[in-house]
Amino acid sequence: MKKRLDQQGFTLIELLAALVLFTIFGSVIWGLFFQSLKYNDAEVSKNQLQQETNLILSTIQQMHTSSTITSIESTGSTLLIISDKGEFPFNKDNVLYQINEPINLPNKEFHLVLTLSSTENSSIQLETETTFSKLK
To answer: Is the bond into 89 cis (omega within 30 degrees of 0)?
Structure first.
């Protein structure tokens, strides 16, 4: 039998080396993908807390300017603003509301420390400190 020396193809060592490199590369890409998903979820939660805070502060400012707020209370998953025009509750399933202390008004000026926390990730928290004033 005559042996052919010009055979082309991959050796078993070359295939195994390619498989190892592909596995390492795939593992790195897989890890980066899931890490980016985790960071994306955290940023989405922070953004939602910021939007909720902006809505609450805007509502309090409008109510403080146009009517008389009698109290602001928080009970974990609900923030309740009571004014002479009615009650305005804020409640979301994935947000915990906390204020520095229950605020009993009417005052022309009051200080508010509002903390919103994500129930999905306890390390995500947004604290806002502000003072509301009325000129009249």
So the answer is: no
Instruction: Render pLDDT for 60-73 as a digit per residue (tens, 0 to 9).
Output: 888 888 888 888 88
Secondary structure of the chain in the HEC alphabet? CCCCCCCCCCCHHHHHHHHHHHHHHHHHHHHHHHHHHHHHHHHHHHHHHHHHHHHHHHHHHHHHHHCCEEEEEECECEEEEEECCEEEEEECCCEEEEECCCEECCCCEEEEEEEEEECCCCCCEEEEEEEEECCC
Q: Where are the domains of the chain?
A: 12-133
